[in-house]
């Protein structure tokens, strides 16, 4: 039974407004970016273009006799080795790359002592305090995993919005690395990414996401 | 259609009367988009072109130097060879299939409706049944194959099962690898 709008409970009305707001921003963004992407990368014009001189010269592969961009589909292995030359002319389609890395937490011997000092009242045995600090240090020597998501910008995704989506979903911290345009998420979420990214960003399909494995980056991060 | 096609399938070549040649030229100009602007380069009026007959009611129209230009089969209207289409991509309307279908089309299989309606594919909805179309691939610049629509584009979109486009001529098939017939 649908209650009239004015009689609906207040929290439901508010929820629909915010949902509408996010839906509209998310809807426009992928559509606009997809449109721009197609304009920029549109193939040879369907109609005769008076500015282009016909007949067009097409480069065919010397091994498989197909146009260079189809070399990857030929069965000939020698042809696939030539692929490096082909790719310079035909840029590969953009993909979203996922990498995992592991990092060690920085040892902060004083943090544990501070924690301990808060708990125990002043005047307790100094010896006991020292023992507890040692235990705490070894317990902090953990190796944690992180996920890097690269290539989202090519699909027109706003990195800050994506960050918010990931923090909400996983409950862990997510940072944007501005120099490389990648997202750094604490924790290994590669498997979940394959479902989450197409769900949240409609212009990226599951075929565009590639798991690139482990990245060897030894980075130290601050203790949370 | 040209999965297994080589020299042995050719039964003979004939020189045509100029009136017949004129008739064929007019028919081609009528059928293809904007062909009249470039027909002089492809089939010049002064040069006589040959017709090569093949098995199974097949006719290949070749220029004077032996390069095959157009194909005529009993069941289908005239269609160009892929080499010609790469040089003049505007003469046929384009339909785009998605990446996953490329491998199958290159093996000679016909194009199924889901290949034309999935994301990554572009369907030109103005095309009717029986029209010759150029089949493009997602992310590629050049045509992948030439086909004939088995149902109109609107039907492809609504029915979405079964064969949508008959694969007549594709990259690296028998006709693509045929040498010049001097």
Largest protein-protein interface = A-B, 24 and 30 residues
The domain count of chain B comes to 2
Low-confidence stretches of chain B: none
Q: What's the total number of strands of chain A?
A: 6
Shape of chain A: elongated
CATH topology of the domain at 133-216 in chain A: Translation Initiation Factor Eif1
Please identify the structural class of chain B as seen in this structure.
alpha+beta
Q: Give the overall pLDDT of chain B as a whole number.
A: 88
Give the terminus-to-terminus CA distance of chain A: 48 Å
Let me know the average pLDDT of chain A: 67
- CATH top level class name of the domain at 133-216 in chain A: Alpha Beta
- Rg over CA atoms of chain A: 27 Å
Query: What's the architecture of the largest domain in chain B, going by CATH?
Result: Roll
Strand content of chain A: 15-25%
Topology-level CATH name of the largest domain in chain B = Sulfate adenylyltransferase
**Helix/strand order of chain B, N-terminal first:** EHHEEEEHEHEHEEHE
- Number of DSSP helical runs of chain B: 6
Number of strands of chain B: 10
What is the string of helix and strand elements of chain A? HHHEHHEHEEHEE
Strand content of chain B: 25-35%
Strand order of the largest sheet of chain B: 1-2-3-4-5
